[in-house]
């Protein structure tokens, strides 16, 4: 049985205690429209079990989540006539996570919609990238 958190708004939505505009559901996943969308059709896809971050989601849910993201993403694009689609997932408050139940945002995008991605720049120290790559690779084993 998947874990739940009685205080979590998404767990309450999964349990049917709070209504949502459901767009897709499987045994382990739920997708519904965001109540404060970036643009119309902005959907949330989440595991029904309560897993606070991406790092807490069991690997065995990965395939079902990916299938849900793909199916809902295609449907969002077709329904809205979007030119593109952003897939976003925030972990921890410092990264913008507001609900501590892992979830993915599917945001329909349109040419010249005014939304911008965050700024990027190259590493200031040319060796920093290599050092970080080694450290991350070691920790990911």
From TrEMBL:
| HIT domain sequence ranges | 9-116
List the GO molecular function terms: hydrolase activity
> What keywords are annotated for this sequence in UniProt?
Hydrolase
Supply the SUPFAM superfamilies for this chain: HIT-like
The UniProt annotation puts motif Histidine triad motif at 101-105
Organism source for this protein? Pseudodesulfovibrio portus
What PROSITE patterns does its record include? HIT_2
Q: What is this protein called?
A: Hydrolase
């Amino acid at each position: 049985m998947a874990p739940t958190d009685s205080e979590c708004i998404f767990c309450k939505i999964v349990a049917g205690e709070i209504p949502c505009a459901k767009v897709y559901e499987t045994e382990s996943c739920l997708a519904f429209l965001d109540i404060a969308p970036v643009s119309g059709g902005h959907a949330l896809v989440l595991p029904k079990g309560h897993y606070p971050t991406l790092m807490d989601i069991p690997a065995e849910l990965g395939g079902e989540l990916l299938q849900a993201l793909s199916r809902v993403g295609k449907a969002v694009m077709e329904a809205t006539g979007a030119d593109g689609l952003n897939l976003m997932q925030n972990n921890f408050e410092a990264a913008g996570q507001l609900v501590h139940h892992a979830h993915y945002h599917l945001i329909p995008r349109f040419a010249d919609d005014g939304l911008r991605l965050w700024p990027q720049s190259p590493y200031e120290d040319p060796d920093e990238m290599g050092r970080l790559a080694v450290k991350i690779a070691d920790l990911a084993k």
